[in-house]
Amino acid sequence: MIELLAPALLAGLAVALVAGPMGSFVVWRRMAFFGDTLAHGALLGAALALALDVNLYVAVVVACLAIAGALAGLQQQRQITGDTLLGIVAHTTLALGVIAISLQKSVQVDLFAYLFGDLLAVNWGDVLALWAGAVLILVLLAWHWRALLSITVNEDLAQVEGVPVTRTRLILMLLLALLIAGAIRTVGVLLITSLLVIPAAGARRLSRTPEQMAALASLLGLASVSLGLAMSWYADTPVGPSIVVAAAVLFGFTLLRRPDA
Description:
It is a single chain. The chain is mainly alpha-helical. The protein has a single domain, classed as ABC transporter involved in vitamin B12 uptake, BtuC. 79% of the residues lie in helices and 0% in strands. It is built from 12 helices and no strands. It is globular, with a radius of gyration of 18 Å. The termini are far apart. 44% of the residues are buried.
């Protein structure tokens, strides 16, 4: 039991730890749909990895980073609104990914695992890669924290204060892409955004400062992964959806606290 659950738990905790502060920015900047778009792009990356016989994580990371960079550029144009653009890219990449995977006749593909996660299938190599990615994201996030907060509060004011708004926005998108690429095995492409949004939304009700919210979101995410993994083990339920349900239950408990007047 321990040999099976230990890699899964450590992998899930790595993702949840980073999802806290990253999810806080997703909630503050209302970027949930952007996260969904990158998650759908991750499935296309996985399909390309199968087709080209390359490393899954490398292909997914490259696909997510490419889509994030493209979206950052496309959102500068004025002909199509941001939410419309995200909707087009999200559903197109998801459809292409599903079609590409279905065409892999010579490879046995568990589409359910890509869509809803397969945390119990991770190995120690995956755990090492996820923790390395988590440390990298946290270091970069801490380095750019003040600039990211400035553009979140008011981009125009941040520009006046000398913050490179466009570059900082791109950095946030790329960090989010890197996290989503790593989290594909945790809750799957269809539920990744929930691990970003739900703990952060709960932490928002309990926090007074941005730093406090980021820390509490990480704690709620860590608890969600632990409880979801336990639920999956004892109730024989899918791991990814179990983690999301655990996060939703914890969020429900935060609703019991009356917000300060």
